[in-house]
Amino acid sequence: MSITEQIPSTTSNSTGSTVAPAQAAPRPKTPRKNRTARTTLFLVLPPLVVAVIAIVLWQSLISVFGVPKYLVPAPADVLAEIGPAIGSLIQPTLVTMGEAYSGFLLAGVVGFTVAFVMARWNVAERGLYPYMVLLQTIPIIAVAPILVVWLGAGAVTNTVIAAMIAVFPVTANTLTGLKSTDRHLVQLFAMAGATKRYEMAVLRIPYALPYVLTGLRIAAGSSVIGAIVGEFVAGIGGGKGGLGYVITSTAQQLLMPRLFLAVIAASCVSLLLFGVVRLVEVLALRRWHESAMATDD
Amino acid sequence: MTTTVPTPAPPVTELVRFAGVTKTYSNGFTALSPIDLTIESGKVVSIVGPSGCGKTTLLRMAGGLSAPTTGELTIRSEQISYVFQDPTLMAWRSVLANTELVSRIRKVPRAECRHRAVEALRLVGLENVQKSLPRELSGGMKMRVSLARALASEPDLMLMDEPFAALDEFTRERMADELIRLWRERRFGVMFITHSIREAVKIAHEIVIMASGPGRIVETVTSPSPPREDPRAPRDEDALEETVKYIGARLAAA
Q1: How close A6 comes to chain B (CA, Å)?
Q2: Would you kindly state where each structural domain of chain B is located, as residue ranges?
Q3: Do B90 and A203 touch (CB under 8 A)?
Q4: CA distance to partner chain B, nearest, from residue A96 (Å)
Q5: Chain A interface includes B56 (CB < 8 A)
Q6: Which of A99, A266, A279, B198 matches a 20 to 30 Å C-alpha distance to B133?
Q7: How much is the pLDDT for B8?
Q8: How many CA atoms lie within 13 A of A174 on its CB side?
Q9: What is the ipTM of this complex?
Q10: CATH classification for the domain delimited by A81-289, as one of 1.10.1740.10, 3.40.50.12780, 1.10.3720.10, 3.40.50.150
Q11: Are A169 and A215 in contact (CB under 8 A)?
Q12: Average per-residue pLDDT for chain A
């Protein structure tokens, strides 16, 4: 407080007014920590408000119209169910997680490899691409019983179904990335006499990384859908059903609050994987790619 | 009184020679009708002409990126560098890594790559941003990195395809001066495509005027005010101005 006032009074010998120096003094900056907190609040608050409104609306509609619990449970009913149901939901959640995440990894490895082969050899692309599209267009529900016959009902089948659904976005995005490399950079590599392998490793793959990660992000959601669909059809094998099995059986018994909890658990399985992929994306790309940069600098 | 003894210029050799070279694309489009052109070592040749007159095709052929349909193309240059209109940098690699790129591909020993890159960055005035990523630099600085990358491979021929076209007027003029300075230092041959007649006349020993439909050379003009070994040698501004006007008229008539 005193510094800005002392300096003018010692340097200027005319009026000694404190108005001018006060204007000249630098405006105090908002501390960085404070700013980050405000940004976080700005990001978190709007969706939070929407969630609260939705829950309040849900609860009040049920109270007003007296909807029976076996049709639509109120938020309070779902909340009350957590205690008794948690023990019987953990195991199925872990089963679904295992199937979905292994399916996701399988889709990632196969999807990338297939895209790599197609980008490297044109003839491979012409040969394989129609079948990748075909794989994408087959209604997976229709194939599931076939897989059950071949692989048996259980985790292996569900993993394969998850991978089948998740593989296409990985391949399609990776291929686009590998083939859309800056043409002048490709020219530069060619003029310098780079081998195809060197060009792939140093130029095309790093260039495609943002595309690969976008593909994986889409695959994260799809693989959980695949695992649950698999469980609908084939999930009872070995006595350890996943969330898909819990969802079908609780629906048949009209155990609505528990069914809602199973659906929420399935969403969490999906969200966790999505979050991990997004985290990898931000860590890998934030220094150089627009998609992962902070927006406010 | 001291007299500066100019360093003797190295013997002139032909880097690239086009003898009756034509280019017709597979779709039947004739990009170039017979071209005769020689690029000599240590000479800056600029090429002006309307869009679609085959300037870039000519440059790509000189770089061995495209083969002539008929005629004879002789490339004697031992080390060619290509500079594009955009900086063409790898966004995920540092300025230094980008500058080292061509030497690295050519399997030059690591220490030597580093040495050449650092030296090239010093020449373009970017020794302080070696660790930066391209996105952290301005447009002019990125273009300098692109120039440094070309220099680091120690070329005897630089092929430049409108390298400064995307820059603002002020930066553009400074980059042209910079190029002349680098040329003094290294004495590479240059093929320089540009849309700016003034730029073409200012930086070159010879200006090749091209026309389209099909692409051909209309005339080759010797610059009245070529880049000289001695940076203090005065330029004949009037003659330069006259040449700019003359070339403008030739282009309009073609």
Answers
A1: 41
A2: 14-78+156-253, 88-155
A3: yes
A4: 37
A5: no
A6: A279
A7: 57
A8: 28
A9: 0.84
A10: 1.10.3720.10
A11: yes
A12: 83
**Residue holding tokens 């390298």?**
B163
For residue B217, is it left (φ>0), alpha (ψ between -120 and 50) or beta? Answer: beta
Q: Chain A within 8 Å of B82 (Cβ-Cβ)? A: yes
In the numeric block, the tokens 């349909």 are attached to B69
CATH class of B14-78+156-253: alpha beta
Domain boundaries, chain A: 31-67, 81-289
Q: What angle do CA A49, A54, A60 make, to 5 degrees?
A: 125
The pair phi, psi for residue B140, each rounded to 5°, is -65, -40
Model pTM score? 0.79
Cβ-count burial of B3 within 10 angstroms (0-12 exposed, 13-18 middle, 19+ buried)?
exposed
pLDDT in tens, A50-101: 999 999 999 999 889 888 878 888 888 888 888 888 888 999 999 999 999 9
Give CA–CA dist A253/A264, Å, rounded.
18
CA–CA dist B44, B190 (Å, integer): 5
Q: C-alpha distances in angstroms, A178 versus A110, A133, A202, B66, B157?
A: 16, 18, 12, 23, 31
Give the chain B residue nearest A285 (alpha carbons): B92
